[in-house]
Write a structure and sequence with these properties.
Ferritin; mainly alpha; 5 helices
């Protein structure tokens, strides 16, 4: 079983991941209303990714016979001053999540909970990628704030075929039938 201190913080993190999911949906909807399909699609994908992160954490708690407590979340920001502000918000959010993931890892180590420490390593790598890609996107959006088509073209060019990450933790419910 995972250390109780870690379990408590991981349950909180599940809420943070769901809040990030909702924020990314709100950002995607904002870009959808501006007819920026590439930006909207990017943030819809990000929303699903955040939801999957929460469900990976749920599955880990289930696998370790720990209590799962799904917390509520505050409403996301739904209005933005311009096309740059949502990406700025997303970058701040990713940096905050990185800090939360690092804090969870520190607790696992303090508690000598080596399984939980190992579980968190994938999230640490994921957050490095998330902060980097959101930082790059912010640079592009700031530089092209007056040229929406350039932003959309950048995302089209940068889009890569996303393959499943074999090292990712299992997602709760992913194997369940409909």
């Amino acid at each position: 079983m995972a250390a109780q201190r870690f379990v408590d913080l991981l349950n909180e993190q599940i809420g943070h991941e769901y809040a990030a999911h909702q924020q990314y949906v709100a950002i995607a909807v904002y870009y959808d209303t501006l007819t920026m399909p590439q930006m909207a699609a990017l943030f819809y994908r990000q929303a699903v990714e955040e939801r999957d992160h929460a469900m990976m954490m749920v599955q880990y708690l289930l696998d370790t016979d720990s209590t799962v407590a799904i917390p509520g979340v505050a409403a996301p920001t739904n209005t933005f001053a311009d096309i740059v502000e949502p990406v700025e918000l997303a970058l701040v959010q990713e940096k905050r999540v990185s800090d939360q993931i690092n804090a969870l890892t520190a607790v696992a180590r303090e508690e000598h909970d080596f399984a939980s420490d190992q579980f968190m390593q994938w999230f640490i790598r994921e957050q490095v990628e998330e902060v980097s890609s959101m930082s790059d996107l912010l640079t592009v959006v700031r530089r092209n704030r007056a040229d929406v088509e350039n932003i959309e073209e950048y995302l089209r060019r940068e889009a890569s075929s996303e393959e499943a990450d074999a090292s990712a933790p299992p997602i709760a419910g992913a194997g369940a039938g409909a």
